[in-house]
């Protein structure tokens, strides 16, 4: 048998949407704008494959360092290293501050 080690291997539950959130996301999710230096959470949207970062970054928080076309460049601390991730706004949500 061949090895089945695709990029989405082991993501059966990680990429699953809840019942009420199934289908395509709202338009406001795709036209989000972020400021450089802003903190954002990576929450993968399984219904949008384009611009989706690697599933290992799901649930991580990063800092916006720039924009590349429609996508945003993020800086993430992962395993003692700093990594650059490219993600479209459908897979990002702004960090909310508590007062």
Structural class: mainly beta
Q: What is the end-to-end distance?
A: 55 Å
- Tell me the number of helical segments per DSSP (H or I, 4 or more residues long): 1
DSSP strand content = 25-35%
Give start-end ranges of low-pLDDT stretches.
none
What is the 3D form? globular
What is the string of SSEs from the N terminus onward?
Answer: HEEEEE
Helix residue percentage:
under 10%
The Cα radius of gyration reads 14 Å
The count of DSSP E runs of length 2 or more, i.e. the number of strands, is: 5
Mean pLDDT: 93
Q: Order of strands side by side in the largest beta sheet?
A: 4-3-2-1-5
Query: How would a crystallographer describe the biggest sheet?
Result: 5 strands, antiparallel
Furnish the topology, listing elements before pairings.
Blueprint: H1 27-30, E1 39-42, E2 61-68, E3 71-78, E4 81-87, E5 92-94
Antiparallel strand pairs: 1-2, 1-5, 2-3, 3-4
């Amino acid at each position: 048998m061949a090895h089945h080690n695709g990029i989405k291997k082991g993501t059966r539950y990680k990429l699953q949407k809840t019942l009420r959130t199934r289908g395509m996301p709202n338009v406001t999710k795709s036209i989000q704008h972020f400021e450089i230096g802003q903190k954002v959470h990576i929450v993968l949207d399984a219904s949008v494959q384009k611009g989706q970062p690697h599933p290992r970054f799901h649930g991580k928080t990063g800092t916006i360092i720039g924009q590349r076309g429609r996508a945003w460049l993020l800086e993430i601390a992962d395993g003692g290293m700093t990594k650059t991730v490219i993600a479209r706004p459908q897979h990002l949500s702004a960090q909310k501050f508590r007062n």
